[in-house]
Amino acid sequence: MSIGETLADARRQSGLTIAQVSQRTRIRESIIRAIEQNDFSPCGGDFYARGHIRSIAGVVGTDPAPLIREYDNDHPPAHMSAAEVFEPATPIKIREPRRRFPLALLTIIVLLGVIGYGAYRLVNAHDSGHPSATPGVTATPAVTATPNAASSPTPAPTPTVTHPPAKPEAVIVLTAQQDCWVGLTMPNGQQLFEGIVTAGKSKKWTEKHKVSLVIGNPPGVQLTVDGKKVRPNTVQVVTLSIDPSAKNPVALAAPAGATLTTNGA
Q1: Fold for the domain defined by 3-80
Q2: I need a surface site. Which of 145, 187, 216, 250 has the fewest CB within 10 A?
């Protein structure tokens, strides 16, 4: 029995109409009808097709895992591009500040120049204080003026090097209790991870920049951010925005109507 036939049969056995399944999953009726006819083209890509299959299966009371595996056999995940998974993001252009010449290094160079000039003056003064011996001529010692105290180099205070505060970072740990499709990207569209995390496996990321985390099977994973458990209250595909610099680093980006709960691990 195909994926569409299995879902349609389970829906009828549950006594639900396509309209009722649409209200509970927030998936359009036309897409549900197409899926029951094994037409996944209206889903908008393999990633969303898997999420729709999982959501419909959860409502009609059938196990989504074998259906996802059957779909993966017919539509290998390797053919999926990042552009099909994530919505296009506008690249953020960050203008790097001009690098200024370090003040501490400039101070050291000036200090070395002053010390070198003072040493040169002292050596010249020492050499000119010794008269050369010439036969038959009484050498008159040359009188060398004492260098002005103002010309003596004054040691400059040792500059204090201050280190900039470390950037905040978010430690993301995802443990799959069921097979789950996961995607992690930067705001500029750079892909950090894309693939299926099988049951019993874990993934860990340490990020200092804002990232987007897409979870295809929210009920099938355990997620912590900085040691706090994050629980999206939905069975649909969910997108989380994680910003290490924010007061509340985790925000729910999709789907509409879902809720997000966090608590310490």
Answers
A1: 434 Repressor (Amino-terminal Domain) (1.10.260)
A2: 145
